[in-house]
Amino acid sequence: DDVCNPGSLSSQLELWDAGQLKELEAKQPNLLKCIRALEQLPMVFTEHLGLQLRVPQSILLSSYPPGAQYRRHFDSYSGRDNPRLITVLLYLSWKSEVGGCLRTYKANADADGRGKEGEFYT
Questions:
Q1: Of 9, 38, 45, 101, which is least packed with CB atoms within 10 Å of its CB?
Q2: What is the mean pLDDT of residues 53-77?
Q3: What global pTM score does this model have?
């Protein structure tokens, strides 16, 4: 069971794997369109923010059925274990009445120190 995401259903999609992409195109063509659009983000970030980014070779697809959680965690510890500069989350079919929301935290916040929705901290 995933420590950060108990109850979730996840799989890695290898963007270089033609077989996986063909299967995704047959089963979930709109999801593949979203992924293709997200692949353009590094160019947007370069143009508008001056960041030099690249598209990862794999992406994590996760589903959170009722009762599943995405626990508070760090994506990286000082950038040495995970060189990711930006994390992109895409919510598909999210409805507020079902529950769940994205919360951000200040780096040194205590266990209950929630950030405000829509605010980002470094």
A1: 101
A2: 78
A3: 0.64
